[in-house]
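User: Thanks for the earlier help. One more: Carboxypeptidase S. Can you show the sequence and predicted structure together?

Assistant: Of course, both are below.
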Amino acid sequence: MTWHSAQDVTCTCKTADSYNVTEKGEHGACRCDKSSRVNEGTRWILHLVIVTFALLYLGLRLYTSPPSKILESQADEFLCQQAAPITPSKNKGLLEDLDDIFATRDFQLKAYESLGGAIRIPTQTWDDYGRPGEDSRWDVLGKLHEYLESRFPFVHAKLSKTVVNHYALVYSWKGKDASLKPVLLTAHQDVVPVEPLTLDQWVQPPFSGYFDGEWIWGRGSCDDKSGLIGSLTAVEALLEQGFEPTRSFVLAYGIDEERGGIEGATAIRDHLLSAYGPDSFSLLVDEGGGYGEENGIIWSQPAVAEKGQLNVRMEVDTPGGHSSRPPAHTGIGILASLITELEANPHIPHLYRDGTYYKQLQCHAEHDSQLPATMRRIIKEARENDVALKQLETELIASLPAFKHIAGTTQAVDVIAGGVKVNALPEQAHVIVNHRIADYSSVKELQAHFADVVWPVAEHFNLSLDAFGTLYGDKSAAAGHVQLSDAFGNALNPAPVTPTSGDAYEFISGTILATLKRSFRERESKMRAVVAPGLSLGNTDTRHYWNLTRHIFRYGHQDSRDCYNGAHTVNEAKRATGFLEMIRFFDLLILSADESSLL
Ligand SMILES: *[C@@H]1O[C@H](CO)[C@@H](O)[C@H](O)[C@H]1NC(C)=O
Ligand SMILES: *[C@@H]1O[C@H](CO)[C@@H](O)[C@H](O)[C@H]1NC(C)=O
Ligand SMILES: [Zn+2]
Protein backbone atom coordinates (compact mmCIF):
# COMPACT_ATOMS: atom_id res chain seq x y z
CA MET A 1 0.00 0.00 0.00
CA THR A 2 1.05 3.35 -0.32
CA TRP A 3 0.96 3.04 3.02
CA HIS A 4 3.15 5.34 3.18
CA SER A 5 1.68 4.02 6.26
CA ALA A 6 1.94 0.44 7.11
CA GLN A 7 -1.37 -1.12 6.65
CA ASP A 8 -0.81 -4.54 7.82
CA VAL A 9 0.35 -3.99 11.25
CA THR A 10 -0.94 -2.92 14.57
CA CYS A 11 1.29 -1.12 16.96
CA THR A 12 0.79 -1.98 20.57
CA CYS A 13 1.81 0.25 23.40
CA LYS A 14 1.93 -0.89 26.95
CA THR A 15 2.66 1.30 29.91
CA ALA A 16 1.70 1.24 33.53
CA ASP A 17 -1.12 3.65 32.84
CA SER A 18 -4.38 2.48 31.60
CA TYR A 19 -4.47 4.29 28.31
CA ASN A 20 -2.11 4.60 25.42
CA VAL A 21 -2.66 5.97 22.01
CA THR A 22 -1.12 3.84 19.37
CA GLU A 23 -0.31 5.44 16.10
CA LYS A 24 1.02 4.29 12.85
CA GLY A 25 3.40 6.78 11.34
CA GLU A 26 3.79 7.48 7.68
CA HIS A 27 6.54 4.95 7.36
CA GLY A 28 5.18 2.34 9.62
CA ALA A 29 6.68 3.65 12.80
CA CYS A 30 4.69 3.15 15.94
CA ARG A 31 4.14 5.93 18.41
CA CYS A 32 2.59 5.75 21.81
CA ASP A 33 1.30 8.74 23.71
CA LYS A 34 -0.23 8.81 27.08
CA SER A 35 -3.59 10.48 27.08
CA SER A 36 -3.70 13.57 29.18
CA ARG A 37 -7.28 12.77 30.02
CA VAL A 38 -6.61 9.31 31.33
CA ASN A 39 -6.59 10.19 34.93
CA GLU A 40 -9.77 12.13 34.87
CA GLY A 41 -11.43 8.86 35.46
CA THR A 42 -14.94 9.70 34.36
CA ARG A 43 -17.06 6.77 33.43
CA TRP A 44 -17.46 8.14 29.98
CA ILE A 45 -13.80 8.42 29.32
CA LEU A 46 -13.08 4.99 30.64
CA HIS A 47 -15.70 3.58 28.41
CA LEU A 48 -14.27 5.35 25.47
CA VAL A 49 -10.81 4.14 26.32
CA ILE A 50 -11.93 0.62 25.90
CA VAL A 51 -13.49 1.33 22.57
CA THR A 52 -10.44 3.30 21.56
CA PHE A 53 -8.21 0.35 22.09
CA ALA A 54 -10.40 -1.74 19.96
CA LEU A 55 -10.69 0.84 17.24
CA LEU A 56 -7.03 1.60 17.16
CA TYR A 57 -6.22 -2.00 17.09
CA LEU A 58 -8.51 -2.55 14.20
CA GLY A 59 -8.43 0.71 12.36
CA LEU A 60 -4.90 2.00 12.59
CA ARG A 61 -3.12 -1.00 11.42
CA LEU A 62 -4.20 0.18 8.03
CA TYR A 63 -1.84 2.26 6.07
CA THR A 64 -2.23 5.59 4.46
CA SER A 65 -5.20 7.40 2.52
CA PRO A 66 -9.40 7.95 1.44
CA PRO A 67 -13.41 7.43 -0.17
CA SER A 68 -16.94 8.95 -1.05
CA LYS A 69 -20.57 9.09 -0.21
CA ILE A 70 -22.19 6.20 1.50
CA LEU A 71 -25.15 4.59 -0.16
CA GLU A 72 -28.45 5.73 1.18
CA SER A 73 -29.88 2.26 1.01
CA GLN A 74 -27.46 1.18 3.70
CA ALA A 75 -28.45 3.85 6.14
CA ASP A 76 -29.82 2.74 9.48
CA GLU A 77 -29.84 -0.92 8.56
CA PHE A 78 -26.41 -1.90 9.77
CA LEU A 79 -26.63 -3.98 12.94
CA CYS A 80 -23.32 -5.80 12.57
CA GLN A 81 -25.08 -9.08 12.01
CA GLN A 82 -22.49 -11.77 11.47
CA ALA A 83 -22.43 -14.03 8.45
CA ALA A 84 -22.31 -17.77 8.94
CA PRO A 85 -18.88 -19.23 8.13
CA ILE A 86 -18.82 -20.20 4.47
CA THR A 87 -17.15 -23.41 3.39
CA PRO A 88 -17.51 -25.05 0.00
CA SER A 89 -19.70 -28.12 -0.35
CA LYS A 90 -18.94 -29.26 -3.90
CA ASN A 91 -15.25 -28.58 -3.28
CA LYS A 92 -15.32 -29.84 0.29
CA GLY A 93 -13.12 -32.87 -0.31
CA LEU A 94 -10.51 -30.77 -2.02
CA LEU A 95 -10.46 -28.32 0.86
CA GLU A 96 -9.91 -31.15 3.32
CA ASP A 97 -7.08 -32.49 1.20
CA LEU A 98 -5.53 -29.04 1.23
CA ASP A 99 -5.82 -28.88 5.03
CA ASP A 100 -3.79 -32.07 5.18
CA ILE A 101 -1.24 -30.79 2.68
CA PHE A 102 -0.83 -27.48 4.55
CA ALA A 103 -0.09 -29.47 7.70
CA THR A 104 2.95 -31.14 6.15
CA ARG A 105 6.39 -29.75 6.83
CA ASP A 106 7.26 -30.18 3.16
CA PHE A 107 4.53 -27.85 2.03
CA GLN A 108 5.27 -25.32 4.74
CA LEU A 109 9.00 -25.12 4.09
CA LYS A 110 8.43 -24.86 0.37
CA ALA A 111 5.93 -22.04 0.86
CA TYR A 112 8.24 -20.16 3.23
CA GLU A 113 11.09 -20.51 0.77
CA SER A 114 8.84 -19.26 -2.04
CA LEU A 115 8.37 -16.06 -0.05
CA GLY A 116 12.06 -15.96 0.93
CA GLY A 117 13.14 -16.27 -2.71
CA ALA A 118 10.85 -13.41 -3.75
CA ILE A 119 12.23 -11.22 -0.98
CA ARG A 120 15.76 -11.87 -2.24
CA ILE A 121 14.90 -10.09 -5.49
CA PRO A 122 15.03 -6.46 -4.36
CA THR A 123 12.18 -4.86 -6.27
CA GLN A 124 12.60 -1.49 -4.60
CA THR A 125 10.86 1.34 -6.42
CA TRP A 126 11.82 4.98 -6.10
CA ASP A 127 9.65 8.01 -6.71
CA ASP A 128 11.92 9.37 -9.45
CA TYR A 129 11.62 6.38 -11.77
CA GLY A 130 11.08 7.12 -15.42
CA ARG A 131 8.71 5.02 -17.49
CA PRO A 132 9.02 1.24 -17.63
CA GLY A 133 10.89 0.31 -20.79
CA GLU A 134 12.83 3.59 -20.68
CA ASP A 135 14.32 3.56 -17.18
CA SER A 136 16.37 0.41 -16.68
CA ARG A 137 15.85 0.45 -12.93
CA TRP A 138 12.53 -1.35 -13.47
CA ASP A 139 14.33 -4.32 -15.00
CA VAL A 140 14.79 -6.13 -11.69
CA LEU A 141 11.10 -6.97 -12.02
CA GLY A 142 12.07 -9.20 -14.97
CA LYS A 143 14.12 -11.29 -12.54
CA LEU A 144 11.11 -11.60 -10.28
CA HIS A 145 9.02 -12.80 -13.25
CA GLU A 146 11.59 -15.50 -14.06
CA TYR A 147 11.53 -16.53 -10.45
CA LEU A 148 7.74 -16.76 -10.40
CA GLU A 149 7.82 -18.91 -13.55
CA SER A 150 10.25 -21.35 -12.02
CA ARG A 151 8.50 -21.43 -8.65
CA PHE A 152 4.90 -21.74 -9.85
CA PRO A 153 4.98 -24.06 -12.89
CA PHE A 154 1.29 -25.03 -12.72
CA VAL A 155 0.19 -21.40 -12.60
CA HIS A 156 2.28 -20.65 -15.65
CA ALA A 157 1.06 -23.73 -17.50
CA LYS A 158 -2.67 -23.35 -16.80
CA LEU A 159 -3.35 -19.63 -16.45
CA SER A 160 -2.93 -17.14 -19.24
CA LYS A 161 -0.42 -14.47 -18.34
CA THR A 162 -0.51 -10.97 -19.78
CA VAL A 163 2.27 -8.50 -19.11
CA VAL A 164 1.05 -4.91 -19.27
CA ASN A 165 3.22 -1.80 -19.32
CA HIS A 166 6.35 -3.99 -19.39
CA TYR A 167 6.19 -5.41 -15.87
CA ALA A 168 2.68 -5.42 -14.42
CA LEU A 169 1.22 -8.93 -14.36
CA VAL A 170 -2.28 -10.19 -15.06
CA TYR A 171 -3.08 -13.92 -14.84
CA SER A 172 -6.47 -15.08 -16.10
CA TRP A 173 -7.80 -18.37 -14.87
CA LYS A 174 -10.76 -19.16 -17.04
CA GLY A 175 -13.70 -20.93 -15.42
CA LYS A 176 -16.13 -23.26 -17.17
CA ASP A 177 -19.12 -20.98 -16.67
CA ALA A 178 -18.58 -17.66 -18.41
CA SER A 179 -21.85 -16.29 -17.02
CA LEU A 180 -20.35 -16.05 -13.50
CA LYS A 181 -18.64 -12.77 -12.67
CA PRO A 182 -14.94 -13.36 -12.07
CA VAL A 183 -13.15 -12.68 -8.78
CA LEU A 184 -10.12 -10.39 -8.80
CA LEU A 185 -7.21 -10.86 -6.40
CA THR A 186 -4.53 -8.16 -6.42
CA ALA A 187 -1.17 -7.46 -4.79
CA HIS A 188 1.98 -5.56 -5.70
CA GLN A 189 5.46 -6.62 -6.73
CA ASP A 190 7.33 -3.50 -5.59
CA VAL A 191 8.65 -2.79 -2.13
CA VAL A 192 9.68 0.43 -0.43
CA PRO A 193 13.44 0.98 -0.49
CA VAL A 194 15.60 0.09 2.46
CA GLU A 195 17.33 3.10 3.99
CA PRO A 196 21.04 2.16 3.81
CA LEU A 197 21.74 3.92 7.11
CA THR A 198 19.51 1.41 8.90
CA LEU A 199 21.24 -1.71 7.57
CA ASP A 200 23.00 -2.46 10.84
CA GLN A 201 19.70 -2.37 12.71
CA TRP A 202 18.26 -5.34 10.87
CA VAL A 203 18.25 -8.63 12.77
CA GLN A 204 18.62 -10.37 9.41
CA PRO A 205 19.70 -8.58 6.22
CA PRO A 206 16.71 -6.90 4.51
CA PHE A 207 16.96 -8.93 1.33
CA SER A 208 17.93 -12.24 2.90
CA GLY A 209 14.48 -13.86 2.89
CA TYR A 210 15.88 -15.87 5.78
CA PHE A 211 13.55 -18.22 7.66
CA ASP A 212 14.72 -18.55 11.24
CA GLY A 213 12.14 -21.14 12.27
CA GLU A 214 9.56 -18.54 13.24
CA TRP A 215 9.95 -15.48 11.02
CA ILE A 216 10.62 -14.94 7.33
CA TRP A 217 12.83 -11.87 7.18
CA GLY A 218 13.10 -9.04 4.77
CA ARG A 219 11.66 -6.09 2.93
CA GLY A 220 8.33 -7.02 1.41
CA SER A 221 7.71 -9.98 3.72
CA CYS A 222 4.63 -8.15 5.03
CA ASP A 223 4.07 -5.55 2.34
CA ASP A 224 3.26 -7.05 -0.04
CA LYS A 225 5.21 -10.06 -1.26
CA SER A 226 3.23 -12.19 1.16
CA GLY A 227 0.10 -11.15 -0.76
CA LEU A 228 1.82 -11.84 -4.10
CA ILE A 229 3.39 -15.17 -3.15
CA GLY A 230 0.51 -16.19 -0.90
CA SER A 231 -2.07 -15.92 -3.68
CA LEU A 232 0.18 -17.65 -6.22
CA THR A 233 0.96 -20.45 -3.74
CA ALA A 234 -2.75 -20.90 -3.10
CA VAL A 235 -3.52 -21.22 -6.82
CA GLU A 236 -0.53 -23.49 -7.43
CA ALA A 237 -1.73 -25.83 -4.65
CA LEU A 238 -5.20 -26.04 -6.19
CA LEU A 239 -3.81 -26.72 -9.64
CA GLU A 240 -1.56 -29.46 -8.27
CA GLN A 241 -4.72 -31.13 -7.01
CA GLY A 242 -6.24 -30.91 -10.47
CA PHE A 243 -8.79 -28.23 -9.60
CA GLU A 244 -10.57 -26.66 -12.56
CA PRO A 245 -12.65 -23.63 -11.63
CA THR A 246 -16.24 -23.04 -12.62
CA ARG A 247 -15.94 -19.31 -11.99
CA SER A 248 -13.11 -17.32 -13.56
CA PHE A 249 -10.43 -15.79 -11.38
CA VAL A 250 -7.97 -13.05 -12.22
CA LEU A 251 -4.73 -12.32 -10.37
CA ALA A 252 -3.21 -8.88 -10.96
CA TYR A 253 0.07 -7.60 -9.57
CA GLY A 254 1.09 -3.94 -9.77
CA ILE A 255 4.63 -2.62 -9.95
CA ASP A 256 4.62 0.71 -8.14
CA GLU A 257 1.91 0.67 -5.51
CA GLU A 258 4.29 2.36 -3.12
CA ARG A 259 4.30 5.48 -5.26
CA GLY A 260 0.65 5.55 -6.19
CA GLY A 261 0.32 2.81 -8.79
CA ILE A 262 0.83 5.33 -11.58
CA GLU A 263 2.45 2.86 -13.99
CA GLY A 264 1.25 -0.51 -12.73
CA ALA A 265 -2.30 -0.31 -11.42
CA THR A 266 -3.37 2.13 -14.14
CA ALA A 267 -2.15 -0.25 -16.85
CA ILE A 268 -3.84 -3.19 -15.13
CA ARG A 269 -7.06 -1.19 -14.85
CA ASP A 270 -7.02 -0.27 -18.55
CA HIS A 271 -6.33 -3.85 -19.54
CA LEU A 272 -9.07 -5.28 -17.33
CA LEU A 273 -11.57 -2.63 -18.41
CA SER A 274 -11.00 -3.45 -22.05
CA ALA A 275 -10.86 -7.23 -21.54
CA TYR A 276 -13.77 -7.53 -19.11
CA GLY A 277 -15.58 -4.17 -19.11
CA PRO A 278 -16.63 -1.90 -16.26
CA ASP A 279 -18.17 -3.39 -13.12
CA SER A 280 -17.27 -6.83 -14.40
CA PHE A 281 -15.84 -8.39 -11.24
CA SER A 282 -17.92 -9.82 -8.43
CA LEU A 283 -15.33 -9.03 -5.80
CA LEU A 284 -11.85 -7.57 -5.45
CA VAL A 285 -9.51 -8.42 -2.59
CA ASP A 286 -6.33 -6.35 -2.22
CA GLU A 287 -3.89 -5.81 0.64
CA GLY A 288 -4.98 -4.07 3.85
CA GLY A 289 -7.04 -4.75 6.93
CA GLY A 290 -6.33 -7.86 8.94
CA TYR A 291 -7.44 -9.28 12.25
CA GLY A 292 -6.42 -9.18 15.87
CA GLU A 293 -7.49 -10.12 19.34
CA GLU A 294 -9.21 -7.69 21.67
CA ASN A 295 -11.35 -8.32 24.72
CA GLY A 296 -11.33 -12.03 24.10
CA ILE A 297 -12.63 -11.72 20.56
CA ILE A 298 -10.84 -11.92 17.24
CA TRP A 299 -11.83 -8.81 15.35
CA SER A 300 -11.39 -9.02 11.64
CA GLN A 301 -11.63 -5.85 9.69
CA PRO A 302 -11.73 -5.77 5.89
CA ALA A 303 -11.48 -2.12 4.85
CA VAL A 304 -14.58 -1.02 2.96
CA ALA A 305 -13.67 2.66 2.95
CA GLU A 306 -10.49 4.47 2.03
CA LYS A 307 -9.69 8.10 2.64
CA GLY A 308 -8.94 10.57 -0.13
CA GLN A 309 -5.91 12.80 -0.26
CA LEU A 310 -4.82 16.25 -1.30
CA ASN A 311 -1.42 17.84 -0.93
CA VAL A 312 -1.94 21.59 -0.98
CA ARG A 313 0.91 23.81 -2.09
CA MET A 314 0.49 27.28 -0.63
CA GLU A 315 2.87 29.84 -2.11
CA VAL A 316 3.30 33.45 -1.03
CA ASP A 317 4.77 35.84 -3.62
CA THR A 318 5.83 39.25 -2.38
CA PRO A 319 8.14 41.94 -3.79
CA GLY A 320 11.85 41.40 -3.16
CA GLY A 321 14.27 44.08 -2.03
CA HIS A 322 17.11 44.75 0.29
CA SER A 323 16.88 43.48 3.85
CA SER A 324 17.89 46.87 5.19
CA ARG A 325 14.45 48.27 4.33
CA PRO A 326 12.08 45.45 5.19
CA PRO A 327 8.32 45.64 5.45
CA ALA A 328 6.78 44.72 8.81
CA HIS A 329 6.07 41.24 7.46
CA THR A 330 8.11 39.48 4.81
CA GLY A 331 6.62 36.77 2.65
CA ILE A 332 7.93 34.23 5.16
CA GLY A 333 6.28 36.05 8.05
CA ILE A 334 2.99 36.16 6.15
CA LEU A 335 3.28 32.48 5.33
CA ALA A 336 3.76 31.81 9.04
CA SER A 337 0.51 33.67 9.78
CA LEU A 338 -1.29 31.66 7.13
CA ILE A 339 -0.04 28.40 8.65
CA THR A 340 -1.00 29.53 12.14
CA GLU A 341 -4.51 30.27 10.94
CA LEU A 342 -4.76 26.87 9.27
CA GLU A 343 -3.71 25.04 12.39
CA ALA A 344 -6.13 27.12 14.45
CA ASN A 345 -8.93 25.85 12.21
CA PRO A 346 -8.51 22.11 11.88
CA HIS A 347 -11.19 19.93 10.34
CA ILE A 348 -13.84 18.93 12.84
CA PRO A 349 -14.60 15.23 12.51
CA HIS A 350 -18.19 14.09 12.22
CA LEU A 351 -19.94 10.92 13.16
CA TYR A 352 -22.46 9.97 10.52
CA ARG A 353 -25.10 7.37 11.05
CA ASP A 354 -24.35 5.73 7.71
CA GLY A 355 -20.57 6.16 8.00
CA THR A 356 -18.06 3.35 8.36
CA TYR A 357 -16.78 4.56 11.70
CA TYR A 358 -20.21 4.38 13.29
CA LYS A 359 -20.61 0.90 11.85
CA GLN A 360 -17.47 -0.15 13.66
CA LEU A 361 -18.86 1.25 16.89
CA GLN A 362 -22.05 -0.69 16.35
CA CYS A 363 -20.07 -3.90 15.99
CA HIS A 364 -18.54 -3.23 19.39
CA ALA A 365 -21.91 -2.42 20.89
CA GLU A 366 -23.31 -5.61 19.43
CA HIS A 367 -20.53 -8.10 20.08
CA ASP A 368 -18.05 -6.83 22.65
CA SER A 369 -19.26 -8.12 26.01
CA GLN A 370 -16.64 -6.05 27.80
CA LEU A 371 -17.98 -2.78 26.51
CA PRO A 372 -19.57 -0.87 29.38
CA ALA A 373 -23.34 -0.87 29.35
CA THR A 374 -23.68 2.91 29.09
CA MET A 375 -21.45 2.97 26.05
CA ARG A 376 -23.38 0.15 24.47
CA ARG A 377 -26.64 1.95 25.14
CA ILE A 378 -25.65 5.25 23.63
CA ILE A 379 -24.19 3.63 20.53
CA LYS A 380 -27.41 1.72 20.02
CA GLU A 381 -29.59 4.73 20.77
CA ALA A 382 -27.70 6.73 18.20
CA ARG A 383 -29.08 4.44 15.51
CA GLU A 384 -32.33 6.33 15.61
CA ASN A 385 -31.83 9.17 18.03
CA ASP A 386 -30.11 12.29 16.66
CA VAL A 387 -29.43 13.65 20.13
CA ALA A 388 -27.64 10.47 21.13
CA LEU A 389 -25.66 10.53 17.89
CA LYS A 390 -24.56 14.10 18.55
CA GLN A 391 -23.68 13.28 22.16
CA LEU A 392 -21.61 10.33 21.01
CA GLU A 393 -19.82 12.51 18.47
CA THR A 394 -19.09 15.18 21.06
CA GLU A 395 -17.62 12.62 23.44
CA LEU A 396 -15.51 11.03 20.73
CA ILE A 397 -14.10 14.41 19.73
CA ALA A 398 -13.37 15.35 23.33
CA SER A 399 -11.90 12.08 24.51
CA LEU A 400 -10.62 10.06 21.63
CA PRO A 401 -7.79 11.55 19.55
CA ALA A 402 -7.93 8.58 17.22
CA PHE A 403 -11.48 9.48 16.25
CA LYS A 404 -10.42 12.52 14.28
CA HIS A 405 -7.58 10.64 12.64
CA ILE A 406 -9.65 7.67 11.58
CA ALA A 407 -13.01 9.28 10.92
CA GLY A 408 -12.12 12.87 10.04
CA THR A 409 -10.14 14.83 7.48
CA THR A 410 -6.60 15.46 8.73
CA GLN A 411 -4.11 18.16 7.78
CA ALA A 412 -0.37 18.17 8.35
CA VAL A 413 2.01 20.97 7.31
CA ASP A 414 4.91 18.81 6.20
CA VAL A 415 7.21 20.77 3.88
CA ILE A 416 8.39 24.39 3.91
CA ALA A 417 10.82 26.39 1.79
CA GLY A 418 11.50 30.06 1.13
CA GLY A 419 14.17 32.71 0.94
CA VAL A 420 17.61 32.44 -0.59
CA LYS A 421 19.88 34.93 1.16
CA VAL A 422 20.04 36.88 4.42
CA ASN A 423 20.29 40.26 2.71
CA ALA A 424 17.46 39.68 0.26
CA LEU A 425 13.75 39.76 1.07
CA PRO A 426 12.10 36.45 0.13
CA GLU A 427 10.19 36.80 -3.11
CA GLN A 428 8.73 33.35 -2.76
CA ALA A 429 7.96 31.04 0.14
CA HIS A 430 5.79 27.96 0.18
CA VAL A 431 4.51 25.08 2.25
CA ILE A 432 2.96 21.76 1.36
CA VAL A 433 0.09 20.58 3.52
CA ASN A 434 -0.86 16.91 3.42
CA HIS A 435 -4.53 16.03 3.86
CA ARG A 436 -6.30 12.70 4.29
CA ILE A 437 -9.91 13.24 3.37
CA ALA A 438 -12.74 11.67 5.37
CA ASP A 439 -15.02 9.23 3.59
CA TYR A 440 -17.94 11.66 3.96
CA SER A 441 -16.06 14.61 2.41
CA SER A 442 -14.38 15.39 -0.92
CA VAL A 443 -11.47 17.18 -2.55
CA LYS A 444 -13.80 20.04 -3.49
CA GLU A 445 -15.08 20.49 0.04
CA LEU A 446 -11.53 20.49 1.39
CA GLN A 447 -10.38 23.08 -1.15
CA ALA A 448 -13.27 25.35 -0.21
CA HIS A 449 -12.48 25.01 3.49
CA PHE A 450 -8.82 25.82 2.87
CA ALA A 451 -9.65 28.95 0.89
CA ASP A 452 -12.17 30.10 3.51
CA VAL A 453 -9.56 29.82 6.24
CA VAL A 454 -6.67 31.57 4.50
CA TRP A 455 -8.49 34.30 2.57
CA PRO A 456 -9.11 36.64 5.56
CA VAL A 457 -5.40 36.47 6.41
CA ALA A 458 -4.34 37.11 2.83
CA GLU A 459 -6.75 40.03 2.65
CA HIS A 460 -5.41 41.42 5.92
CA PHE A 461 -1.90 41.54 4.40
CA ASN A 462 -3.22 43.09 1.21
CA LEU A 463 -2.58 39.99 -0.88
CA SER A 464 -4.72 38.49 -3.60
CA LEU A 465 -5.52 34.78 -3.56
CA ASP A 466 -5.81 32.18 -6.27
CA ALA A 467 -7.43 29.18 -4.61
CA PHE A 468 -7.23 26.25 -7.03
CA GLY A 469 -8.29 28.50 -9.91
CA THR A 470 -10.76 30.73 -8.07
CA LEU A 471 -9.54 34.31 -7.71
CA TYR A 472 -10.06 36.39 -4.58
CA GLY A 473 -9.16 40.07 -4.57
CA ASP A 474 -7.49 42.07 -7.33
CA LYS A 475 -4.12 40.69 -8.19
CA SER A 476 -2.94 43.83 -9.98
CA ALA A 477 -3.85 46.09 -7.04
CA ALA A 478 -2.49 43.90 -4.25
CA ALA A 479 0.90 43.95 -2.55
CA GLY A 480 1.46 40.32 -3.26
CA HIS A 481 -0.19 37.05 -4.06
CA VAL A 482 -1.07 33.73 -2.46
CA GLN A 483 -1.35 30.71 -4.73
CA LEU A 484 -3.05 27.47 -3.70
CA SER A 485 -2.60 24.40 -5.87
CA ASP A 486 -2.48 20.62 -5.88
CA ALA A 487 1.24 20.10 -5.13
CA PHE A 488 1.71 16.90 -7.10
CA GLY A 489 -1.42 16.76 -9.21
CA ASN A 490 -2.53 13.60 -7.44
CA ALA A 491 -5.66 14.73 -5.63
CA LEU A 492 -7.88 11.80 -4.81
CA ASN A 493 -11.45 11.71 -3.61
CA PRO A 494 -12.37 9.23 -0.92
CA ALA A 495 -13.10 5.83 -2.43
CA PRO A 496 -16.70 4.82 -2.96
CA VAL A 497 -17.64 2.89 0.17
CA THR A 498 -18.10 -0.82 -0.42
CA PRO A 499 -21.62 -1.87 0.60
CA THR A 500 -21.67 -3.59 4.00
CA SER A 501 -25.07 -5.05 3.41
CA GLY A 502 -25.64 -7.60 0.75
CA ASP A 503 -24.04 -10.66 -0.71
CA ALA A 504 -20.42 -9.70 -1.35
CA TYR A 505 -19.91 -8.47 2.22
CA GLU A 506 -21.59 -11.61 3.51
CA PHE A 507 -19.32 -13.69 1.32
CA ILE A 508 -16.06 -12.09 2.45
CA SER A 509 -17.18 -12.15 6.10
CA GLY A 510 -18.21 -15.78 5.92
CA THR A 511 -14.94 -16.71 4.23
CA ILE A 512 -12.87 -14.93 6.87
CA LEU A 513 -14.80 -16.62 9.69
CA ALA A 514 -14.43 -20.03 8.05
CA THR A 515 -10.69 -19.51 7.58
CA LEU A 516 -10.25 -18.58 11.24
CA LYS A 517 -12.18 -21.69 12.23
CA ARG A 518 -9.88 -23.93 10.22
CA SER A 519 -6.74 -22.18 11.42
CA PHE A 520 -3.83 -24.15 12.81
CA ARG A 521 -3.59 -21.74 15.58
CA GLU A 522 -5.51 -22.94 18.61
CA ARG A 523 -5.95 -19.46 19.90
CA GLU A 524 -7.92 -18.52 16.85
CA SER A 525 -9.97 -21.61 16.57
CA LYS A 526 -11.20 -21.38 20.14
CA MET A 527 -11.93 -17.70 20.28
CA ARG A 528 -15.05 -16.13 18.87
CA ALA A 529 -14.45 -14.05 15.76
CA VAL A 530 -16.34 -10.97 14.64
CA VAL A 531 -16.07 -9.21 11.29
CA ALA A 532 -16.43 -5.43 11.33
CA PRO A 533 -16.06 -2.98 8.43
CA GLY A 534 -12.73 -1.15 8.38
CA LEU A 535 -11.54 2.20 7.14
CA SER A 536 -8.19 2.60 5.43
CA LEU A 537 -6.22 5.77 6.13
CA GLY A 538 -3.89 5.27 3.19
CA ASN A 539 -4.31 4.26 -0.42
CA THR A 540 -3.53 1.04 -2.18
CA ASP A 541 -3.58 0.21 -5.87
CA THR A 542 -7.36 -0.07 -5.48
CA ARG A 543 -7.54 3.70 -5.94
CA HIS A 544 -7.39 2.89 -9.66
CA TYR A 545 -9.82 -0.03 -9.56
CA TRP A 546 -13.07 1.64 -8.54
CA ASN A 547 -14.70 1.03 -11.90
CA LEU A 548 -13.95 -2.70 -11.93
CA THR A 549 -16.33 -3.54 -9.09
CA ARG A 550 -18.31 -1.92 -6.29
CA HIS A 551 -17.13 -4.65 -3.95
CA ILE A 552 -13.56 -3.77 -3.06
CA PHE A 553 -12.15 -5.24 0.13
CA ARG A 554 -8.73 -4.22 1.37
CA TYR A 555 -7.93 -7.24 3.43
CA GLY A 556 -4.78 -9.24 4.05
CA HIS A 557 -5.66 -12.23 6.18
CA GLN A 558 -3.10 -11.82 8.92
CA ASP A 559 -3.00 -11.35 12.64
CA SER A 560 -1.80 -7.99 13.87
CA ARG A 561 1.11 -9.87 15.47
CA ASP A 562 2.15 -11.60 12.27
CA CYS A 563 4.50 -8.78 11.31
CA TYR A 564 7.59 -8.39 13.44
CA ASN A 565 7.92 -4.63 13.19
CA GLY A 566 5.40 -3.34 10.73
CA ALA A 567 6.05 -2.45 7.14
CA HIS A 568 8.13 0.34 5.57
CA THR A 569 10.67 0.21 8.38
CA VAL A 570 13.57 -1.85 9.72
CA ASN A 571 13.09 -5.50 10.60
CA GLU A 572 10.15 -6.24 8.38
CA ALA A 573 9.46 -9.93 8.95
CA LYS A 574 6.46 -12.19 8.50
CA ARG A 575 5.46 -14.88 10.96
CA ALA A 576 5.65 -18.09 8.97
CA THR A 577 2.49 -19.59 10.47
CA GLY A 578 0.71 -16.35 9.64
CA PHE A 579 1.82 -16.66 6.04
CA LEU A 580 0.34 -20.15 5.98
CA GLU A 581 -2.99 -18.74 7.17
CA MET A 582 -2.92 -16.24 4.29
CA ILE A 583 -2.56 -19.11 1.84
CA ARG A 584 -5.42 -20.93 3.53
CA PHE A 585 -7.57 -17.82 3.23
CA PHE A 586 -6.90 -17.47 -0.50
CA ASP A 587 -7.71 -21.12 -1.11
CA LEU A 588 -10.89 -21.01 0.92
CA LEU A 589 -11.91 -17.86 -0.88
CA ILE A 590 -11.30 -19.40 -4.30
CA LEU A 591 -13.06 -22.69 -3.52
CA SER A 592 -16.04 -20.98 -1.91
CA ALA A 593 -16.33 -18.30 -4.60
CA ASP A 594 -16.21 -21.03 -7.20
CA GLU A 595 -19.59 -22.37 -6.13
CA SER A 596 -21.19 -19.57 -4.12
CA SER A 597 -24.44 -18.02 -5.25
CA LEU A 598 -23.58 -14.94 -3.21
CA LEU A 599 -21.31 -13.59 -5.94
C1 LIG B 1 -2.16 47.18 -1.29
O1 LIG B 1 -0.96 47.12 -2.02
C2 LIG B 1 -0.92 47.95 -3.17
C3 LIG B 1 0.35 47.63 -3.94
O2 LIG B 1 1.47 47.73 -3.10
C4 LIG B 1 -1.02 49.40 -2.72
O3 LIG B 1 -1.03 50.21 -3.83
C5 LIG B 1 -2.31 49.60 -1.93
O4 LIG B 1 -2.38 50.86 -1.40
C6 LIG B 1 -2.37 48.59 -0.78
N1 LIG B 1 -3.67 48.64 -0.17
C7 LIG B 1 -3.81 48.72 1.15
C8 LIG B 1 -5.22 48.77 1.65
O5 LIG B 1 -2.85 48.75 1.93
C1 LIG C 1 -14.45 5.55 -13.58
O1 LIG C 1 -15.07 5.80 -14.81
C2 LIG C 1 -15.53 7.12 -14.98
C3 LIG C 1 -16.32 7.17 -16.28
O2 LIG C 1 -15.57 6.66 -17.34
C4 LIG C 1 -14.33 8.06 -14.96
O3 LIG C 1 -14.75 9.39 -15.11
C5 LIG C 1 -13.61 7.91 -13.63
O4 LIG C 1 -12.45 8.69 -13.62
C6 LIG C 1 -13.23 6.45 -13.39
N1 LIG C 1 -12.72 6.33 -12.03
C7 LIG C 1 -11.58 5.69 -11.74
C8 LIG C 1 -11.14 5.70 -10.32
O5 LIG C 1 -10.91 5.14 -12.56
ZN1 LIG D 1 1.50 -2.52 0.05
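User: Great, one quick takeaway?

Assistant: The radius of gyration is 25 Å.
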